[in-house]
Amino acid sequence: MVPIFGYPTSLVPYSKLVALEKKGLPSYPEVIDTDVIDVDIKKTLDGVDVQDNRGTGEQPERKAKDSVSIFCSYSHKDESYREELDAHVTLLKEEGKISLWHDRLIPLGNEWEPEIHDNLNSAHIILLLISVDFIRSGYCRDIELKRAMERHEAKEAQVIPIILRPCDWESAEFGKLQGIHAGQPISTWDDRDSAWTVVAKQLRKTIEEKQGNKGKR
Questions:
Q1: Please, which contacts does 57-60 make with residues 24 or more away whose CB atoms are closer than 8 Å?
Q2: What is the pLDDT of residues 113-135, one digit of tens each?
Q3: pTM above 0.85, yes or no
Q4: Which class in CATH covers the domain with range 68-215?
Q5: Are 101 and 136 in contact, with CB atoms under 8 Å apart?
Q6: Which residue of 44, 48, 86, 214 shows the fewest CB atoms closer than 10 Å?
């Protein structure tokens, strides 16, 4: 997702902007609250990408030399939560502290399984977005979680659960791990933005500690 130029809290899909730009459109109408504005496509895309590098997937992450790569494991039934997480770590991405990868970033036409395996095997941090749908997903648990825990046990990566919705998760494979939490599952907050802000701040602290430790080696 990309923040609209001049409206940083309003987000639109990167792939949508790229498609409109390829059609030669300079702008398009977008409803924000009760207003209809003309979104400047080039200026909005230039805020996250250079024109020669435009892709066909979602917004690419900016990577600094010491950027921490994060893999996001989640059930597609929790897509809205993943998008909220993505939005709330915008500053971490823009500051070059992290690159956040999920399967919606797979370019069109690419085989999805090798892309997932490559990113899962190279991530510094693996976030587990936990819900009953994650727990009952064969792919999430049998493939992604299994490999994540193998890398965690080998100290190759740090696995961090985030509890999205109430479920019986304590006895699961990841139940022994310290997670990033907002005191209660994200869905139970009256204001989910407040919950994600707590998560984003805890994640920032974890990232900065990890980058600080790198600098001491």
A1: 57/14, 57/15, 57/104, 57/105, 57/106, 57/107, 57/108, 58/1, 58/13, 58/14, 58/15, 58/104, 58/105, 59/1, 59/2, 59/14, 60/14, 60/105
A2: 999 999 999 999 999 999 999 99
A3: no
A4: alpha beta
A5: no
A6: 214
Extents of the domains making up the chain: 2-53, 68-215
Distances (CA, A) of 14 to 30, 39, 102, 217: 14, 13, 14, 37
- Give yes or no for a contact between 102 and 59, defined as CB atoms under 8 angstroms apart: no
How far, in Å, CA of 63 to CA of 119, rounded? 14
| Tokens linked to 28 | 């398009």
Place of tokens 């999805």: 112
E strands, 85-192, in order: 98-101, 125-130, 158-163
Please state, in angstroms and rounded to a whole number, the distance separating the CA atoms of residues 180 and 94: 21
Beta strands in 112-186 (DSSP E): 125-130, 158-163
- How do residues 160-189 score in pLDDT, each as one tens digit? 999 999 999 999 999 999 898 777 999 999
Q: How many residues does the chain have?
A: 217
Q: How far apart are CA 210 and CA 206, in angstroms?
A: 6
